[in-house]
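Field reference: "sequence" (input) and "structure" (output). Example, DUF3077 domain-containing protein:
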Amino acid sequence: MKASKPKRPRRDDHKHDEATRRILDDLSANPPDIDTLQPTQAQPVGAQSPFAVMADVRALEALQHIAIMLKSAEEVSDEITERGSGLERGLVWSLVHSVEMSRSLVNALLRGNGIDPQKVQPSP
């Protein structure tokens, strides 16, 4: 007999949408200037995230790394989409579309600050 998957907790999209709307409203009212953004604060590995973040990473450096990660996510999603079928393919396509939009915004920010996203390489 096939084991059933554990149920994931359902997300309350209404609350998520409200939180997103509040963030967007605040950003519209008080747009941050990238030059005034503070560097990152250290984030240790913990229950909320298995990934650590180093302290004092400048906003433009963070955007460069985000661009690299989004490009990788886009490439992996493209590969998965080719092998998917039905509902899975549609869901992955939606993911690819979101990643492409995010990467376009990040790349536009980088270009606006004199950095060519095509020449951004991962740090050794």
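The CA atoms of residues 26 and 109 lie 19 Å apart.
The chain has three helices and no strands.
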